[in-house]
Amino acid sequence: MTSDDFVHLHVHTEYSMLDGAARLDDLMTEASRLGMSAIAMTDHGNLFGAYDFFTKARGAGLKPIIGLEGYYAPQGRAERKPFDFTGGFDEGTPEDPGAGRGKHSYTHMTVWAESTLGMHNLFRLSSLASLEGQYHKPRFDRELLDRYGAGLIGTTGCPSGEVNRWLQAGQYEKARAAAADFRDILGPENYFCEVMDHGLAIERRFREDLIRIARDLSLPLVATNDLHYVHESDADTHEVLLCVGTRTTMDDPKRFRFDARDFYLKSAAEMRSVWSELPEACDNTLLIAERCEVSFDEGANLMPQFPVPDGYTEETWLRAEVERGLETRYQGSVPDDVRQQSEYELGVVAQMGFPGYFLVVADLVRYARDNKIRVGPGRGSAAGAMIAFALGITELDPIKHGLLFERFLNPERISMPDIDIDFDERRRSDMIRYATEKYGEERVAQIVTYASIKAKAAIKDSARVLGFPYAVGERITKAMPPSVMGKDISLAGAFDATDDRYAEAKDFRSLYESDAEARQVIDTAKGLEGLKRQPGVHAAGVILSREALMDVIPVWRREQDGAIITQFDMGACETLGLLKMDFLGLRNLTVLEDCLDNIEKNTGDRLVLEELTLYDRTTYELLSRGDTLGVFQLDGGPMRSLLRSMQPDSFEDISAVLALYRPGPMGANAHNDYADRKNGRKPVVPIHPELAEPLSEILGDTYGLIVYQEQVMAIAQELAGYSLGKADLLRRAMGKKKKEILKKEFTPFQEGMRSRGYSDSAIDTLWEILVPFSDYAFNKAHTAGYGLVSYWTAYLKANYPAEYMAALLTSVQDDKDKSAIYLGECRRMGIKVLPPDVNDSDSAYTARGSDIRFGLSAIRNVGEGVVLSISETRRSGGRFTDFHDFVAKVEVHVCNRRVVESLIKAGAFDSLGHTRKGLAAVHELVIDSAVDIKRAEAAGQYDLFGGLAGEGETTGLAEQTPVPVGEWDKAVLLAHERDMLGLYVSDHPLNGLDHALANISDISIASLIADESLESTVVTVAGLLTSVQRKTTRKGSAWAIATVEDLDGSVEAMVFPQTYASVSTTLIEDSIVAIRARVERTDEDGLRVIALDVQSPDLSEAQSGPLRLSIAASRCVPPLVERLKEVLRQHSGTTEVHLHLTGGTQTTVLRIDDALRVTPSAALYGDLKALLGANCLS
């Protein structure tokens, strides 16, 4: 450093989310360009980016200074009442829009870590501010500063600092006293008066007072620039970012804004020019930078210590547990190869220092099983470990299934083992709680993630902030290339000719060049894209530590649920020696557990999944038909087609299809080659004639194709003499596709094969196939583990259809789109889904024989407390005999008008002999009477009126209210039912129109939802308009969001102004429409379609061929026939009617007289079903 240098010490990076716009990479690049030697980070109230900042600064040759602009609570962190700095004025500051009003719950304070001790104290300060002082912001106080002030350097801060607050209030003596207090806490050499100048009046107005305090107390000055972005030109982007964070627009005169453009990384010359009259303030930045020296312990091992019995070490206890497990698994007769493999694995684990890890994982799994928490059979490469199988961590015998330990833990490449565990998603929190109790609350936390502003979101945010209508953002995002595997091209990539997807963005670039609005929005969005939006929580990751986490990293508490979360991301935590484990909540394990409960309730049998045969013919028949909607990993439309082509008949086929149904293998057509070779449609062609025999055992089960990573490793071992450890390193190197690495790896591979007598032709051919295949070959241990869950779910669907579908419906009952799809699947399977019933329903969907009963908790306005009360009343008082009996028996809180009305409209009282319309008319009177009686009885007053009945009688006015017998017409009844349940259950307005709708649409909605390959294609869907939300853009243009539903599912259609103008009169709720639309999938909204046209189809034309009616021959008696004729006459037309009379194994087809031809319509179908039954049109 020289006397002309300057170090920026007040820096808000992108980790000051939706406020700081300084990307770390840009920050380091610019600081290096300006010749700076050091730089600090002082993000608002957090240390999220401290390790990231530290590594990137060092990588750029800059000295990292770890700091924090913290929130200080003047009255203590427990006090939430604002502190009164009386005499303030309403001006505000850039960092605190609520400042200047005299009362504040917190002030600001800049703090840096002078040493590693100080950095760890900063971690504790930041953590406890969140854990104990959170109120709007994470706040620390004097007590914490006293306790953890060692190794810290602090300042008076920005205009929102406590000293400055007193000065703004005209309280100089109190300002001086506050500065003296901070000086005494931190030490006179560790407390500075911080001066800023961004051209703001609030900074200059009190500067002399601040300098006076510095003189009075002998405090050194330090100059800072309140950096929020890297370049001066980034000021506009920063303003937009502030609008995104505060949900305002640029034209809002009251928006929070920075009233200057000086908050950037100024050069040393610029800073010294600003502070030419106080050069010592700049000199002190160099002094502070020299003093600050911190480091992270990147070689630590902080794995928790597992408690073992006296006389054992972790290593000897692991050996004992493995031995016990093997004896149990193999029923006292452990094969020699199994024992040999387990001995080898125990030796590797001991050598690498990981016995405690396996004990920790095994203990978690054991706890789950002991507490009836379903655990997955294994995921990832851990299923390749025999000791994991012995310890009960996995459920697959790795030798039997050809899985490799070295793919999981390679003795020739030291790295932490990584065992992910799947749990019933409802019980994941129980597992985190157990780990917390076992290892200590201070040693366990979930892992932070950061949501960033992605390309399409940046465009939409920018369009909104700039004041453009919603449709402008939509129009621009529609011009972007479609997502690939859920990822959009970046905005920078769309304009970068070297980007892999540049060519796809041609239309997007054309829009940019030709449309001024689009250009303004895209230019603004480029500045936002990639910035961090908000912290989140990793879906699975949990950190465990031997030491208290706050001694190693900072943590924070999420307000909504109290979860303790790391401030450092997963990679940083692992680098610093903390143990990362993945506790995954898997919905399908919940489905499995619920299904087993349903089977036990319905049949009395309790299945044990782990004991099921893997050779069940019924299961493979279901898989071969592709009837796998709702089967784990196998329920997508294209996947079902592949299953039909493959005709799986073994567990190996299930494992293979999971490995092959991915972009890499599908791009090479490996999935179809496998299916064709398996079924004899193509020959099994050896990779090279010379290799046919040597590879027959390795590739035999996959018909000569390389499907698994383990096969790549086995080939290297068998043909080139590699150890499995070296073979795993070779597989990794191949996957990197770097020419210099591949060239280096080819030489020993070639030499190994030559030494075994193979020709160069065979070697070259094999290498040319191995390199690309190893890139997309999959981990067999993972596909086998997940394949077992796929098999179990397929087995249950095939053998226990009602019980399985009930569990599946329960798992998605909050997702009406998926519920509709699975209800459609029930109809296809011939499973009758019965409406909810107060006498028969439980909370969830339940199997009743071969039918499924709707659950009460799925009814709108009916909470779990109501369901529990109804169930308890039913158990203690018997079934309800009628509506009056129901209201007389249930608790008062159940007799809520809204609850009862919801039950009525959902059909929950149908079995009591009342009509829904009748109950709707009188339920309020009945309830009021019943409630009056209940309250009087509770008060001991009812007998005063002579109203007590004799023993065994029911009492009260409720019984005297008759229920009318009339019913709503079908359309009204179904509309109410859908309103309460989100779906049609007892019937569907489209029943009987299946074929007609198929003729006017390209695809069912369920297939549309399942097929991700349809992104950006134009399709026609047909169904019932169940909702039309009419809206207006800011410019006054009308548009709408329309929900269309067929018998299998529903989807939202966006009808933007241009289309809306021509179709608005067609958008009528409860009408049948055909919508031609473009398919779009977004991260924010999932699947939706953009309507291009909406038509009201002529279903009479859509109906092709005769109308076929089906009834049992025994029902075909003269009175019914006469009523049928009357219905047909009421809908006369030109379509023939055929009557199918079913009986036993035979069906007789009768052609109805031409005089009774009909016009197909929803009304006709409704009348026919009312007369002949819901399935008469099937």
Task: Describe this protein's structure.
The protein has 1178 residues and is α/β, with parallel strands linked by helices. The chain folds into seven domains: 24-291, Metal-dependent hydrolases (TIM Barrel, Alpha-Beta Barrel), CATH 3.20.20.140; 314-450 and 537-587, no CATH class; 454-530, Orthogonal Bundle (Arc Repressor Mutant, subunit A), CATH 1.10.10; 589-793, no CATH class; 832-981, no CATH class; 994-1101, Nucleic acid-binding proteins (OB fold (Dihydrolipoamide Acetyltransferase, E2P), Beta Barrel); 1105-1172, no CATH class. The protein is 44% helix and 14% strand. It is built from 47 helices and 27 strands. The strands form seven sheets. Strands 1, 2, 5, 6, 7, 8 and 9 form a seven-stranded mixed β-sheet that branches. Helix 34 (780-799) crosses helix 35. It is globular. Residues 87-100 and 942-959 have low confidence and may be disordered.
Key structural traits:
1178 residues, single chain, five-stranded mixed beta barrel, TIM Barrel, seven-stranded mixed beta sheet, 7 domains, 47 helices, globular, Arc Repressor Mutant, subunit A, alpha/beta
Helix and strand topology:
Blueprint: H1 24-33, E1 38-44, H2 50-59, E2 63-72, E3 83-84, E4 103-104, E5 107-113, H3 116-133, E6 139-140, H4 142-147, E7 152-155, H5 162-168, H6 172-186, E8 191-195, H7 201-205, H8 207-217, E9 221-223, H9 235-246, H10 268-274, H11 279-291, H12 314-329, H13 336-352, H14 355-370, H15 386-390, E10 420-424, H16 428-439, E11 444-452, H17 455-465, H18 470-478, H19 491-494, H20 506-514, H21 516-528, E12 532-544, E13 555-557, E14 564-566, H22 570-575, E15 579-586, H23 587-603, H24 617-625, H25 637-646, H26 651-660, H27 663-667, H28 670-678, H29 696-699, H30 709-720, H31 724-736, H32 739-755, H33 760-776, H34 780-799, H35 801-811, H36 816-829, E16 833-834, E17 846-848, E18 851-853, H37 864-877, H38 883-889, H39 897-906, H40 916-938, H41 970-981, H42 994-1000, H43 1005-1010, E19 1018-1032, E20 1038-1045, E21 1050-1055, H44 1057-1063, E22 1072-1082, E23 1086-1095, H45 1099-1102, E24 1107-1112, H46 1118-1130, E25 1132-1135, E26 1137-1143, E27 1146-1151, H47 1162-1172
Parallel strand pairs: 1-2, 2-6, 7-8, 8-9, 10-15, 16-18, 21-23, 24-26
Antiparallel strand pairs: 2-5, 3-4, 5-7, 11-12, 12-15, 13-14, 17-18, 19-20, 19-22, 20-21, 22-23, 26-27
Helix pairs in contact: 5-6, 6-8, 9-21, 12-13, 12-14, 17-18, 17-21, 20-21, 23-34, 23-35, 24-34, 25-28, 26-34, 30-31, 31-33, 32-33, 34-35, 35-36, 38-40, 39-40, 39-41, 46-47
